[in-house]
Amino acid sequence: MKPIEIKKDIYWVGAIDWDIRDFHGYSTYKGSTYNAYLIIDDKVTLFDTVKKGFKSDLLHRIHNIIDPRKIDYIVVNHVEMDHSGSLPEIIDLVKPEKVFCSPMGQKNLLDHFHRPDWPFQVVKSGDTINLGKLNVHFLETRMLHWPDSMFSYIPEESLLISSDAFGHHWATSERFDDEVDEPELFAHCAKYYANILLPYSPLVQKLLATVTQMGIKIDTIAPDHGVIWRTNPGKIIAAYAAWSRQLAKPKAIIVYDTMWHSTESMAKAVADGLVEEGISVKLMDLQVNHRSDVVTEMLDAKALIFGSPTLNNGMMPMLSDILCYIKGLRPTGKIGAAFGSYGWSGEAVGLINKWMEEIKIELVDPGVKVKYVPDHAGLHPCVELGRKVGKMIKDAV
Ligand code: FEO
User: Fold this and answer.
1) What is the β-pairing status of strands 128-130 and 135-140?
2) pLDDT tens digits, residue range 90-103?
3) What is the pLDDT of residue 1?
4) 0.70 cut: is pTM over it?
C-alpha cells in the first residue's frame, strides 16, 4: 500500500473503499475514498484520518514513509466519522503532541469520542501554525458541511486541503484529476454537490468570495474524497460557483412511482408535452432510480414534476421518501406540478401540491388526476400539463 507524493514531502496516505454502496442514504455505486495527507517536516503532521475499519490501510501507507509514532501533529479538518472513525486508535498509537481542530471541532470530537485527555489545540480562521519549512493557515468553513469543518492551506505549496469540499465519491486507483475521465469526474462531483452541499449553497458562495478576497494562490486542491485537483482546480471551483447559484437549464425531471402502470402512462404523456415544447426531459421511475440520482438530475432542472397513484389515502412510499429527501436539500428557483391515478379517493396529487407550496416550489398547475386507467382521451390533459410546464420553463430560463 504505497503512499502517493502529491507535493515534495506531502503525501496522500488515505484509503480506498471499493465496496461501499450506501453513504447515509446516498448511493455510492462506484465506491469512495477517505483521503488523509501527511506532511514530513520538522513537525510531522497528519491531516484527517480514515473511516473505522480502514486504519491499517492508513498505517501501512504511513509506514512506507515514516514510523507513525513519529507523527507530531494531527489536524482534524472535519469530525464526521468517515474521517475520524479511526482517530481514537491512531491517537492511542501515535500519542501526538497536539490535535488541531476548530472550536466546533473540539466540541464535536468530545461529543463523539469523549476523550477530554486528548491534547487539543483549537485554531480559528486566520490562525497559522509553523511546521518547520511549511506553514498551515486555517480557515473555518462552518456548515460546509458540518459546524466543525475547516480548510488547511499550505501557502509555500499553494495547496488547499479542503475537507469534504470539492470531493466526490468514486473509488479509483488513480489519484489525480488528470488521470481520470473528466466528464465522469464532474458527474460524480455534481452528485456530491447535489446530495451533500446543496442546502448550504449561500454559504458556498460566501466562501468562494472570501477565498477570492484573500487572494490566495491555489494550484492544488486535496479534498477528503476522490481525486486530487492538481491540473484543473479552477474548473471545480467554477463548477461550485455555478452549482451554488442553482442555475437551471431548459430541463424537467418527471419523478414517479406507479402501481398498475396508469401513473407511468401519465408520466410518459407529460413527457411528450414537454418534448413538444423543446424541453429536455428525464423520466425517473423511483423503482429503478435511486433518490441520490434523482437529486443529481434536479440540480440543473428548472421543473420538478411528481407522479403518484393514491395509496391508502396518501401517496406511494417511495414518493414520500424522495419528497422528504428533497425538502432537506432546500432547492431554490424551481417550478413544479403533480399528477397521478386513483381509484376512489385520490389524495396523492393534493398532498404533493401541498408539499411544493411548503418548500416554495412554484406550482404551475393544480395537477392532473385520472380514475383507474387512462384511455387516449384521459392522457390528453397530461400532454397539456407537459406543454404548460414547458412553456413556463421557456419563459423562465
Ligand atoms: Fe466525508 Fe462529511 O464527511
Assistant:
1) antiparallel
2) 999 999 999 999 99
3) 77
4) yes
The conformation of residue 132, written as its DSSP 8-state character, comes to S
Residue with cell 468530545: 110
Q: Tell me if 17 CB under 6 Å of ligand 1.
A: no
Ligand 1 atom closest to Cα of residue 224: 1
Out of 24, 97, 178, 372, the active site residue is: 24
Is 169 one of the annotated active-site residues of the chain? no
- What element of type H or E holds 5? strand 4-7
* Whether residue 335 has pLDDT greater than 80: yes
Cα 32–chain centre separation: 12
Active site annotation includes 80: yes
Predicted pLDDT at 187: 98
Residue 2: the pLDDT is: 87
* Cβ-contact 185, 177 below 8 angstroms: yes
Task: Please name each of the domains of the chain with its CATH number.
Answer: 4-244 (3.60.15.10), 252-391 (3.40.50.360)
Q: Are 259 and 311 in contact (CB under 8 A)?
A: yes
> What is d(CA 296, CA 189) in angstroms, rounded to the nearest whole number?
10
For ligand 1, say whether the CB of 168 is within 6 Å of any of its atoms. no
Catalytic residue among 17, 48, 57, 80: 80
Name the residue at shortest CA distance from atom 2 of ligand 1.
Answer: 80
The model's pLDDT over 195-246, given as tens digits with 9 standing for 90+, comes to: 999 999 999 999 999 989 999 999 999 999 999 999 999 999 999 999 999 9
User: Which of 164, 177, 277, 365 is labelled catalytic?
Assistant: 164
